[in-house]
Predict the 3D structure of the following.
Amino acid sequence: MRKRGYSIVPFPLGLSILSKIVIGRQFRGPPNSGNGGYVCGVLAKDIEGPTTAVLRARVPLDADLTLLFAPTASLAGSVQVAARVVETALHKLHELEFDVGRVVSGFGSCPLPPVARKDPEAIGLTNDAVLYGGQVELTVDAPDEELEEVVPRLPSSASDDYGQPFGHVLEAADWDFYKIDPLLFSPAEVRLVSVASGRSFHAGGVDIGVLEHSFRG
């Protein structure tokens, strides 16, 4: 790796810019792309604490790269989590072994939680926004009977861990996400609309009580 004017620069909304990193050709992996393990190490090495780096596109070689990262405890971090509410519903469908390729379109909404002072608190607030305030509608090419059967299992309320702020759930699990019921990670409310019949199937609902407890303390 070569560094050209390398710096970590604070940016509005809680973003920071890790600027002008160059991955040299000696670190290539796939054709015309950086080696994934090496690049992830470069991305993570200047971030404090345990870090997960995921590459979703090829990383060009011998080019100036401007990298943005946002802690969860920032406005940008909160927006980033809330904006994934539809993705969360699709992930839940996948966990239920439903073919997400049959989803034709989707949209959703999610409240923005208050910005926390520290990342551990922010993890609780942002997850609560999705689990207890997220609303998603998916248009699906599947028989009505199949949609009617799967929809009750889609919202977060279908999980045994539902009902208290996520921060409490995480503490009870000793901060180990893998000890938490994976079916909890889904929007509060889901509606499936059939392409063929136009009928809709609904389950779940926004839980104002838990949101107020989480957001206001």
